[in-house]
Write a structure and sequence with these properties.
The protein is α+β, with helices and mostly antiparallel strands and 272 residues long. It has six helices and 17 strands. The protein has helices at residues 3-7, 31-43, 61-70, 98-104, 174-177, 261-268; strands at residues 23-27, 54-59, 78-82, 106-110, 113-119, 124-129, 132-137, 143-149, 152-160, 162-166, 189-195, 206-209, 214-219, 226-230, 233-235, 238-245, 251-255.
């Protein structure tokens, strides 16, 4: 027998198949989101959130925020795909190639705001916000609010429909609709933005360092009741609210490289 045949075919090394990340798919309570989840579950190995490496959120921006808050104890990154309306914090929905997209995704770390609100009855409510903390009037009369920054009163009385503190990620949401500034990620700033300010009429808000502690004191709280909201957590009849960034808490969002959040924030500043 020829020597070549005795040795047999040459050995070719085949590396072991590398499995992708374990994914969980969370969907908003809409027909569009539920149908998209069914398609992904049929195509990929899907696990429960507690066993996942990455959470995939299907819905709109509001549902993405709910997903981050609901599963914050897990500390998992979230890759959102738009099955809602605006979808500023979301990637385009595509059924195919999800594992490859996750492998190439760009992470963005977001630090939330912490709201500590004290009601007129003395109840203390603590909540976190990824987009903004907003105060708003509850009745027809304008709210009157005193504003301090790091313990120094900067505005004795703001007559308004409300006022908010927004993160860079949230600066393109409610803050933008209230004519607040768009803040690039990594700028180290927060937006302090009035909502329909009546007096002082020319005050348009302020940019604050991200480590600032902002205090809101509600004036004439019994006559002019004010509520406060941290993303989707809301409390009514507040007397005092303190807002500050929480640097030791981080939420990680994943984006397709060509549609990362920094680029979206930049584009928004030049939108027609």
């Amino acid at each position: 027998m020829p020597e070549a045949e005795a040795r047999g075919p040459p050995f070719v090394y085949a590396p072991p198949r590398m499995t992708g990340p374990r994914i969980a798919v969370c969907a908003a309570d809409t027909d569009t989101a539920r149908e998209a989840r069914q398609r992904l579950v049929a195509r990929y190995d899907v696990v429960e959130p507690e066993a996942a490496d990455i959470l995939v959120a299907l819905g709109g921006d509001g549902f993405l925020l709910q997903t981050l808050h609901r599963h914050k104890a897990l500390g998992r990154p979230v890759f959102g795909m738009n099955r809602g309306s605006v979808g500023f914090l979301l990637n385009e929905f595509r059924e195919a190639g999800l594992e490859e997209r996750l492998a190439r995704a760009t992470p963005v770390l977001l630090h939330p705001l912490r709201m500590e609100a004290t009601t007129t009855t003395g109840e203390r409510v603590v909540a976190t916000a990824i987009n903004e903390v907003a105060l708003f009037r509850q009745q027809r009369q304008t709210a009157k609010i005193r504003i301090s920054v790091d313990g120094v009163v900067r505005l004795q009385e703001l007559s308004c429909d409300g006022v908010m503190v927004a993160t860079p990620a949230g600066s393109t949401a409610y803050n933008l609709s209230a004519h607040g500034p768009i803040i690039p990620l990594g700028a180290g700033l927060l937006a302090l933005t009035p909502i329909s300010a009546f007096r002082p009429r020319r005050w348009r808000g302020a940019l604050l360092p991200h480590g600032a502690k902002v205090g809101f004191e509600v004036l004439e709280a019994d006559k002019r009741p004010v509520g406060a909201a941290a993303d989707n957590s809301e409390v009514r009849d507040v007397a005092h609210v303190e807002v500050r960034e929480v640097p030791d808490i981080g939420f990680t969002l994943l984006f397709d490289p060509d549609q990362n959040l920094e680029e979206r924030v930049l584009k928004e500043q030049f939108a027609p």
